[in-house]
Amino acid sequence: MELKQYALILWRWLWLIILGAALAAVTAYVVSSISTPVYAASSTLLISQAPSDKVSDYTAILTSERLARTYSQMLTGVPVMKEAITTLKLNIEPADLAKQINVTLVRDTQLIKVTVESEDPQIAMKLANLIPQIFSRQNASFQVDRYADSKANLSKELDSLNAQIRQIQLAIDRLGQPTSAEGKAELARLQTEMAQYRQSVTSLLQSYENIRLAEAQSTNDVVVVEPAELPIEPIRPRTLVNTALAAAVGMMLAVGIVFLIEYLDDSIRSPEQIHQLLQAPVVTAIAKMPAASLRGGPIASVEPRSPITEAFRGLRTSLQFTSLDKPIKTIVVTSAGAGEGKTTIASNLAIVMAQAGMRVVLIDADLRRPSIHKTFSRPNRNGLTDLMLQGAAGWNGAVQETSIRNLFLISSGQLPPNPSEILASQKMRQLLDHFSKVSDMVIIDTPPALAVTDATVLAPNVDAVLLVVDTGATRIGAVAQVKTQFEQVGVKLLGVVMNKIQIGRGNGYHYYNYYYYYNAESADGGEKKKGFRWPWERRRPHHTPESENAAASPQ
Question: Is the pLDDT reported for residue 534 higher than 50?
Fold first, then answer.
């Protein structure tokens, strides 16, 4: 599919795309308008450690980053949430409050950002400032308690060692300066124990000092570097942004639906489909006719200067120059199904041919649901069946003159019980041969080709078959079946008339001259009236009795 075809599809379904975007935008706007505004306040914390000569700067940074990750989890812990709820007297569960708090680590830094969302901007700001304070206080208290226990344990061990040292010192004092070998050995043992205890005391004192230094460093490792401020604008709902995004999403969904519809649609919409299916040309495209024009009679007689009538003249020209060596004298006009406009096409084609000076016989071969006599407001007392069944006796009144010069009508006549047999009979072939000799063109309107076999059995006896399709309604499968049906009797379709084209609806068809100057006579005596005319302003052509009877009946 070419880019132009995609553009035509989008243009044809533009109303649906606009509707989808509008519905989505309106829905988003309404939902955003009735939603409760939510505000957000943020504070920033710095996690640091006191300088230490025993570790490198890189190690200290890594330690601080690990500490920051740990603290980010603890900031939304139950102890912090409970104290915040108690302090601000909030009516909320700790778990629910934690869901309103977002703690993030600033990449490649030792910073923690605490963001609190609330429907009340004051509450959001207070919580964003209070939570770091509570955490810092609780963390400092925890560190103090932890180091206090360690120092107490070390103090007990030091007291025990000092007591042992005092006892050993008393024992050494009692020995004095021994002269015996046993006394000297005991003194040496006591002095060794004394040295060991004193070494242990020195080690414990060093540990105590390290704990004291660690306690001093850990009490100030959480610092608020950027307190929260009162939020002015809510973070959601963002009405304009939501509306714009919803419109875009609605438009994309509508476009998707459009292409899905086009993919699933198996109706005839373009000449390319006709050519691919039938290997037959589209001889003309007829726009959908206004209802007012249809009520006034065939448009070719009611509005001879309309663009639609010009399209019928184009069809007439195409048929005249299709085969110059063997001119077409008899033509069947049919369709795949009912209501596709074959009778309208046949009637208007007959009119424009008669207007060009050709002697035209229009035959209503729809012996099941005839309608051409209604189109031309003629009686249906005698017609085709009378000619077939009564022979020469049926000629009286069977061939009727119309208000169009050179156009003669043969209605269906009485409806027979066996239409297909009548149309396939030798008499029908003789009848067509006769009228093809006494007239310039014989146009035969038949029933739908797929409904009954009438068109199929009649097709081998005529020069050409013209298929009418209702654009956008006739199914591809139906057209393919019609082709197969005619091929089985050795008939190839002359061409296709694409009927009921929606002008300007993204199908590539346009009547650029739709609004033009009508040179029609006005009611006040021959004065030209220019400009576009509404259907009720258009006058039907006048036909005098002389013009009606000027052409002789081709009997």
Answer: no
Q: How far is CA 425 from CA 91, 228, 519, in A?
A: 96, 99, 48
- pLDDT digit string (tens) for 430-485? 999 999 999 999 999 999 999 999 999 999 999 999 999 998 888 988 999 999 99
Residue 232's CB is within 10 A of a number of other CB atoms, namely: 7
Could you tell me if 181 and 242 lie in one domain? Answer: no
Task: State both tokens at 383.
Answer: 């017609």
Compute the distance between CA of residue 450 and CA of residue 485 in angstroms, rounded to an integer. 8
Using a 10 angstrom Cβ sphere, with 0-12 exposed, 13-18 middle and 19 or more buried, the burial of residue 246 is buried
| Rg from Cα positions in the chain | 51
Residue 361 pLDDT > 70, yes or no?
yes
Predicted TM-score (pTM) of the model is: 0.60
Residues 191 and 304 in one domain: no
Q: Is 418 found in the same domain as 346?
A: yes
CB burial string 412-451: b at 16+ within 10 A, e below: bbeebeebbebbbeeebeebbeebbeebbbbbbbbbbbbe
pLDDT of residue 186 exceeding 60: yes
Name residue 396's amino acid: N
Domain match, 334 and 431 both: yes
Q: Does residue 387 sit in the same domain as residue 423?
A: yes
How would you classify the pairing of strands 441-445 and 282-287? unpaired
SS3 326: coil
* DSSP letter (8 states) at residue 236: B
CATH number at residue 342: 3.40.50.300
Residue scoring higher pLDDT (243 or 144)? 243
Contact partners, residue 213, CB within 8 Å, separation at least 6: none
Alpha carbon distance 436, 180 (integer Å) = 162
331 belongs to a structural domain: yes
Instruction: State both tokens at 217.
Output: 């460093």
Contact indicator for 253, 19 with CB cutoff of 8 Å? no
Please indicate, yes or no, if residue 10 is contained in any of the structural domains: no
Q: Torsion angle, CA of 404/408/413/419, rounded to 10 degrees?
A: -120
The β-bridge partners of 441 are 360
pLDDT digits (tens, 9 = 90+) for 51-73: 554 444 555 555 666 777 888 88
In a domain, 412, yes or no: yes
Range of the domain at 145: 36-226
* CA angle, residues 532, 350, 430, in degrees to nearest 5: 175
Average pLDDT of the residues in 477-505: 87
Q: Say yes or no: 299 and 401 in one domain.
A: yes
72 and 113 within one domain: yes
- Whether 313 is in a domain gets the answer yes
Answer yes or no: do 214 and 241 share one domain.
no
Chain mean position to CA 392 = 65
What total number of domains does the chain contain? 3
pLDDT at 545 over 50: no
State the Cα–Cα distance between residues 176 and 185, nearest whole angstrom: 13
Residue 281 is encoded by which pair of tokens? 């040309």
DSSP-assigned letters across all residues of 139-151: HHHHHHHHHHHHH
